[in-house]
Amino acid sequence: MDYRQWDVTVDQLTVGSRAQVAKTLSEADVMLFAGLSGDFNAIHINADYAEQTRFGQRVVHGILTTGLISAALTKIALGAIYLAQEVKFLKPVFIGDTIVATAEVTEIKAEKGVVHLHTFCTNQRDEMVIDGQATIMVGRIR
Q1: Dihedral angle computed from the Cα positions of residues 52, 57, 62 and 65, in that order, rounded to the nearest 10 degrees
Q2: Which of 13, 50, 107, 132 has the fewest CB atoms below 10 angstroms from its CB?
Q3: Domain ranges of the chain
Q4: What sign does the CA torsion over 127, 130, 133, 139 have?
Q5: What is the pLDDT of residues 77-118, one digit of tens each?
Q6: What phi and psi, each to the nearest 5 degrees, are found at residue 37?
């Protein structure tokens, strides 16, 4: 494998550069994430319990959904270092929802190799379910 492809530099990025990742979140995704993270909150894994909540059904872990943003960032700059992520959870995500995670470059600090991005997720109804900002570090100009 040619690892040089991972060496993205700030001069290869422009404000407005955008990448997206889409995924339909499944029962298996939720259960695997619960096992990996140790987050067994009943709202995520217990259908009987979840039916009694304001949502009326199980809700996908917010951090699982946010993880799709990380995947979108790799399409902006493969090999980038994740420095920060701020998110606001706007709407619940349910099992079977198709989520599109988007990352868009909003600012480039070339001298430091730092890139700021607007990050957000929408569902199949084009409703924004997560809104946020991320900061990554990429290589400096060659």
Answers
A1: 180
A2: 107
A3: 3-25+61-137
A4: negative
A5: 888 899 999 999 999 999 999 999 999 999 999 888 899 999
A6: -90, -20
Q: Tell me the pTM.
A: 0.90
Specify the CATH class of 3-25+61-137 in words: alpha beta
**Model confidence band, residue 142 (pLDDT cutoffs 50, 70, 90):** low
Integer Cα distance of 75 and 78 in angstroms: 6
Is residue 80 classed exposed, middle or buried when 0-12, 13-18 and 19+ CB atoms within 10 A define those classes? Answer: buried
CA angle at residue 84 from 139 to 37, to 5 degrees?
A: 115
Q: Which residues pair with 23 in a beta bridge?
A: 99
Q: How many residues does the chain have?
A: 142
Helix (H) or strand (E) holding 24: strand 18-24
